[in-house]
Amino acid sequence: MPATNELPVEPLTTLVRREWATFRSRRRLVALTAATLVVILIGLLVGVVNRSVCSEGPIEVACPTDPVGPAGQTVSDQFYFAHQPLGEHGSITARMTAMTGTITYPPPDHDEIVPGLVPWAKAGVIVKDGTRQGSSYAALMVTGSHGVRMQHDYVHDTAGRPGGVSTSSPRWLRLTRAGNTITGEESTDGVRWTTVGTAHLPGLPRTVLVGLFATSPGDLTLRPTGLGGSIVESRFTQASAVFDNVALAGGGTGSRWSHGSVGEMGHTDWERYHRPPGFVESNGTATVTGSGDIAPLGMAGQHTVEDTLVGLAIGLVMLIVLATRFGSGRYRPDSTGAGAPGSRVLAARAVVVGAVTFLTGLVAAGAVLPLGTAVLRANGTAVLAAPALTQVRVVVGVAALLAVAAVLALALGALFRRTWVAILVAISAVVLPYVLGGLPLLPDAVSEWLLRLTPAAGFAVQQTIREYPQVLGHYAPSAGYFPLPWWAGLAVLCGYAAVALRMGMIRARRTVATRRQAEWR
């Protein structure tokens, strides 16, 4: 029988068991435990040091919490409201003839007040389930720069005709209730009507409030910092709208209006000394003045559940060092008899490293996310609500991030064979772009491309912030917003890991072949 150079090949499961036996040294297990504790302890520390205290005179009281909308999301619900009761069937019709606003630039650099409307200033007619913040509503409105819109329950937005409003070009608005269905219509002459949208508000009581409203969100400005980065600053704004030809059908009490603010307002110097929020009737017209917003709560100045994962980068560095050393270290001889790592041995090590770092991520994120959020809220710090399924997705996503990044580091260790070089490359590729992008140092465009094109894109798995077109916000990495969805960011990281692992396997195969040839000679 002819001789052959083919040697028996060990099953991959056997290799995995053997590499796991090699991996589970006391030093490596201690390193995994340390990485887990770092993520958890730093996350809890964030909750401890962020303490909000409110007071009424010398007495400390619990800080008010942000309202929660019908779908469980944290919302902003602040506006001035002139209202009357409305039954299960009825309508409100009003003509808006003017909408003006004020924008205040805060001192010291912009100590001035200018007329103007921010793009999402809103005024119009609204049906709402009482004056409690966060209650269900549907509103038809004219906005500062986005024309007529119909919005309901904070997250839903439907566009009507573009353009503004003036005495020569008024806007007629109408909301009609039929049970739990609210229909919004607009007109330019009060005769020919166009339907803007329909809202279904389950659970509306038999009697709701209907009326006129005005609100205006803060205007955001960006203060330059660092190497072209920016920090968000907010300016107080106010909107006033003038209505006439107001008509109610289906439960109003004639011409008598109740009015007041939903949410607190009237605390700024401009409101106290110049123009307070309110409702004024005169000669058949009604003027409503207010500030705030009716929308999902913006992220400016708000904490999110992923803030508890601030220690993730440090924990990942520790895991990168661990995985790289395991990838570049000496290998036991496999069935080929060669001491160099074969491609199958490298694959077995990738399975071991990926599995243990995935479990590490599950434990770390699964513990710090609920505990850190609870500590933040216990200290009076508002945290944007995130659905339970979203939080589960974040925990699993963080575990996957750590696992794939560790496999990438392992592959770099096998590819470069010099531990310090592989560690430097892995940290520079995965952690450094994330840190630079998250700090207000670089221009937003540069930060966004860093988090699109580098392995740091995988950090998008922790994001819970959602961009709403009707909410003015600084949607940039320095504000905690990633340019890619979580799945796309993870896919970018997986692509890098797959390429690096393949290159490592090719090098390992060539190394084995070279050693065999040398032994044969």
From TrEMBL:
Q: Does the keyword Transmembrane helix apply?
A: yes
Superkingdom assignment? Bacteria
Q: Which stretches are transmembrane?
A: 29-49, 309-326, 346-372, 392-413, 420-442, 484-501
Keywords attached to this Swiss-Prot or TrEMBL record, sorted alphabetically, are: Membrane, Transmembrane, Transmembrane helix
Does the keyword Transmembrane belong to this entry? yes
Q: Which residues lie in coiled coils?
A: none
Note the InterPro entries from the entry: ConA-like_dom_sf
The name on file for this protein is DUF1349 domain-containing protein
- Species annotation: Plantactinospora alkalitolerans
